[in-house]
Amino acid sequence: MHRLFFYLKRLSQKRYCQPKRFLLATALATLAACSPSRTNVERGSQNQELYIGIGAEPAALDPHITTGLTEYSVMLALFEGLTTLDPQTMAVRPGVAKYWEVSGDGLTYTFHLDSQARWSNGDPVTAQDFLFSIERILSPALGAPYAYMLYPLRGAEAFNKGETTDFSSVGLHAPDPTTLICQLSAPTPYFLGLLAHNTWWPVHPPTIRQHGGMTERISKWTKPGNFVGNGPYTIESWRLNNGITVSRNPHYREVAQAALNRIHFLPIDMQTEERAFRAGYLHITSSVPVHRVDWYRENLPEQLHIDTALGTYYYMLNTTRGPLADKRVRKALAYAIDREQITEHILRAGQKPAYHFTPPNAGGYNAEARLPHDPSLARSLLAEAGFPDGAGFPAFELLYNTSESHRTIAEAIQQMWKTQLGINVTLHNQEWKAYLSTRQAGDFDILRAAWYGDYDDPNTFLDLGTTDNGNNHSAWSHPEYDRLIQSAAQADSAEKRQQYFQEAETILLEEMPYIPIYFYVTSRLIHPSVQGWYPSLLDNHPYQAIHLKAVH
Amino acid sequence: MHRLLIRRLLQAIPTLWLIATATFFLLRVAPGGPFDEEKPLSTEIKEQIEAHYGLDQPLYRQYFSYLGNLLQGDLGPSYKYPGWDVQEILLQAFPVSFELGCWALLVALVIGIPAGILAAALHHRHAETGIMMAATAGICLPSFVVGPLLILTFSLLLGWFNPLGWTYPADRLLPAITLGLLYAAYIARLARSGLLEVLTEDYIRTAHAKGLSQRKVLLGHALRSALDPVVAYLGPAAAGLVSGSFVVETIFFIPGMGPFFVNGALNRDYPVVMGTVLFYAVLILLFNLIADILQMWMQPRTRHDEA
């Protein structure tokens, strides 16, 4: 036994280990030599290849069935609508439509298509393709979740809801291959901007037909090899959880304008992304972890980009639940929240405290109504409602979807309500899908919610308060409010429309079914070699505008 | 041997059926469905989509049609990623996870077994305590700590390796260490206790008495039996290793199976969850069988028992 141990001990002695160590070091060095000496960023900047983090795997690349911003950011390279948005000013610019005329009543739009517009297989993009595409997204059988973006078209809603199966009842005509006429049911001031949204983008009819037909959801038409699009880029490769690479579409109508040769979209997790950026693996990240924001602000402020986004973080109140049915209570809860405390000390990335519901500058609209941060007013409102110093206030619950940041905010607000109003709220979190199901069932007291604008207009926010809006789970219904939103949709002048929205927002804050908390920002890390990336409220960054310059 | 194979195969069928059934119904009990989104769909649209996937059928019909398709080898389409079949996803992701798992297993064995032998040899000494403390630390340190630490050191600080990705041969090293370390620690503990037990047995003394060299006694006699618990552990461990780790694959951005397990469940992507769970079950059954065969080969005693 002794000799065995002696033998093993000799094995462990340094003399024997030295050559092994040497071997290990050599192996490590050899392995390390197998990885490339240049980073993605260095190589990419030279070859005009952009590496961009998108945070998550896109659910799909079919513009008619996707709803998310991640999907949008990839599809923006692959498709082009009738109009596009200017990367700097977000003003409407020509896209597939070279120019257009609007009738005096604002109800008829005639688009003249660019005869140079081509699909990535060389086919011309025609008005008939748009007809096919719009019929496709409106067809009930496709089940397009965002079909309502086309509802300004006359007859679109009825066709989408299956009230008629005759597509010719929709206000859309193509008298010749380069002319498309749209008839609206009401003047829609943001209509041209809407056309830049993915729901209005065309798809290539022969490709769609070849892979299952017009209304087939489970289709493989967006796979590399099958894909045909009309954007500046086309899909080169796509592997789930590994990335999508797009390369130039040689038939794109303004092919000379696109400087980038390739774009690599990488679905890297947020925490990993920041390390990837530091190692030169990415030009642009999809976000910045909160705990790293201060470091970048201090050390690399020129690479930290924080831009206002068109999004509101708010709490939705169930107005059928006990004291929450009383608007004085709802206002008391809203007034007792110290929003600056939350944006300055918890979020810390430049978010703005929200004293009204619609984010500033949505389609040039800035709400005049304000809710105060006034704990003493909150206390007196609560006392008026029969709960002086919170006495007798029943137990209630605040529900949020599981996330570190939602929890921290909820805890801060829980504390504010306790100290300022003397009422106790219990916090409750649910995993995302469970949260959605509870929310849709209306089975909550107070619920964390958020909304990102679909288009640059106050309507995309204020519409949330209408009685029949699919996202209004507060059970709050106000006929006057509904009437104002309806009037805004039919207003014949921009001033009147703004006025209706101002009045609606005032009612929303007076009634307080939603407690606005803060306005979102998008934060990204961007390598200095990236040129032509501008702050954008809608996070709309056309890739034609971007090029890479060598940086040392 | 044949009897073992046939018996295992016959056991596998009801096992897989039970797992498929339990997973199928548990998934449906979970609140929320695959098509619940933040911006909720109108009832008509949701019905259209559900009809597309046959979710409008009564549950028992869905269950039988799933089993029917399964028998034909059809795992169905992903709900979250339309256009991708579950088979396609598994075929793309599994080879990656498998490769990573094999490297990690190698790391685990190369570190774990020598560490275990050394600890046993240095029984009752400080060095043993040291090795075992390191092993315990290895078990306790989660991969989301080890992974970023390795990246910070070897990639961001020293610049030797890529911080993430799965493109170059060298990209295998850091994730394999991260994933393998935990298993190495377990293996070290098992190898140590196995060896300590075996070294007290009579046949080792006999071997010594026969005049065999130390090396022969140790490698030829003691180690073989001592590794018995290690091999038994390797079956399920290998199945776990090659079926992908959510944490390691996320940290290193590796396109393996790990994320599909977790995200599939979070997205309520029923076919993806069913597919990955069943695939994992098959792997476990398979690796347990391989471990049993290995054990029989290494341990004559088990071989006799089986016969």
Layout of helices and strands:
The complex is a heterodimer of chains A (about 550) and B (about 300).
Chain A: H1 2-12, H2 14-34, H3 40-47, E1 49-53, H4 69-75, E2 83-85, E3 92-94, E4 97-102, E5 108-113, H5 127-138, H6 156-160, E6 172-176, E7 179-183, H7 191-194, H8 205-210, E8 233-239, E9 243-248, E10 262-266, H9 270-278, H10 290-299, E11 304-317, H11 327-335, H12 339-347, E12 352-353, H13 375-384, E13 396-401, H14 404-421, E14 425-430, H15 432-441, E15 446-452, H16 459-462, H17 479-490, H18 494-511, E16 514-525, E17 530-531, E18 547-548
Parallel strand pairs in A: 1-10, 13-14, 13-15
Antiparallel strand pairs in A: 2-3, 4-5, 5-7, 6-7, 8-9, 9-10, 11-15, 11-16, 12-16, 17-18
Helix pairs in contact in A: 11-13, 17-18
Chain B: H1 2-29, H2 43-52, H3 59-71, H4 86-121, H5 126-140, H6 143-157, H7 173-198, H8 202-209, H9 214-226, H10 228-242, H11 246-251, H12 258-266, H13 270-298, H14 300-306
Helix pairs in contact in B: 1-13, 4-5, 4-7, 4-10, 4-13, 5-7, 6-7, 7-9, 7-10, 8-9, 10-13, 12-13, 13-14
How does this structure look, described?
The complex is a heterodimer of chains A (552) and B (307). Chain A is an alpha+beta fold and 552 residues long. Chain A folds into 3 domains: 2-76 and 213-306 and 523-548, 3-Layer(aba) Sandwich (D-Maltodextrin-Binding Protein, domain 2); 83-208, Dipeptide-binding Protein, domain 1 (Alpha-Beta Complex); 308-521, Dipeptide-binding Protein, Domain 3 (Dipeptide-binding Protein, domain 3, Roll). Helices cover 33% and strands 18% of the residues of chain A. Chain A has 18 helices and 18 strands. Chain A has helices at 2-12, 14-34, 40-47, 69-75, 127-138, 156-160, 191-194, 205-210, 270-278, 290-299, 327-335, 339-347, 375-384, 404-421, 432-441, 459-462, 479-490, 494-511, and strands at 49-53, 83-85, 92-94, 97-102, 108-113, 172-176, 179-183, 233-239, 243-248, 262-266, 304-317, 352-353, 396-401, 425-430, 446-452, 514-525, 530-531, 547-548. Chain A has a 6-stranded mixed sheet with strand order 12-16-11-15-13-14. In chain A, strands 1-10-9-8 form a 4-stranded mixed sheet. Chain A is globular, with a radius of gyration of 28 Å. Mean pLDDT of chain A is 90; it is low at 1-17. Chain B is mainly alpha-helical. Chain B has a single domain (92-306), classed as MetI-like fold. Chain B contains 14 helices and no strands. Chain B has helices spanning 2-29, 43-52, 59-71, 86-121, 126-140, 143-157, 173-198, 202-209, 214-226, 228-242, 246-251, 258-266, 270-298, 300-306. In chain B, helix 4 (86-121) runs antiparallel to helix 5 (126-140), helix 4 (86-121) crosses helix 7 and helix 8 packs antiparallel against helix 9 (214-226). Chain B is globular and about 85 Å long. The model of chain B has no long low-confidence stretch (mean pLDDT 86).
